[in-house]
Amino acid sequence: MGEQIDPDSQVRLARAVFGPLGGVVEVSAVNATGTWALADVSVGDFLARRQSDVERLLDGIRSVCRFGDAAMAIVDELGRFRDHEVPAAFLLLWSAGVTGVPQPLENLEEPPVVRRMCRMAADLQLTYFLQALITAALATGTDPHQGAPKVAELLATAADLADGTGGSAPLDIFRMWRVAHLPGILRPESDAPESGKAGFRAYDELLEKLLEEL
What we know:
40% of the residues are buried. The longest helix is centred in the middle third of the chain and has 29 residues, at 111-139. This protein is an all-alpha fold. It has 10 helices and no strands. The mean pLDDT is 96.
């Protein structure tokens, strides 16, 4: 049975999940153009083409994270899952500004720069998405043996959205997540409870096996 947590906590967990997933959607729409020209981007058209995948993602997140209606309403509140423009500044944000801000500023919209930001943004936001999924699943009491197959499927679907050519391999995202997030959680001086550490270790072991089989 899942643990009962208050609605405000669910909403905070949902923001952590749907924030990076919104970034994945925007990057996906840009990558789907094949030109990386921002004038060619249509988030609405992309979402219409991938509607079944998006629905599977949202249903799967509700299931593994045990989100109620208030938590799921964050999807509409954030506005990433409906048609909107994707300016270069959004991609700079999702990629954590690694490229820097070129001068003149208009160079940020050049297709090679846009493509590079998309690659970095996909890696970063998918890693955040995986961390948020596992955190929410543990917080709501989803047993790792039940949750890990669902999390693996969600990661694979999100990664395929981000880059249909396989550039965002789920196993690679998992490995980036492990080195970026687990050491801080599992270190002896971490304030994470022992039960939480055990849960993260279990998800790590199970996801590695599942993703290696994809």
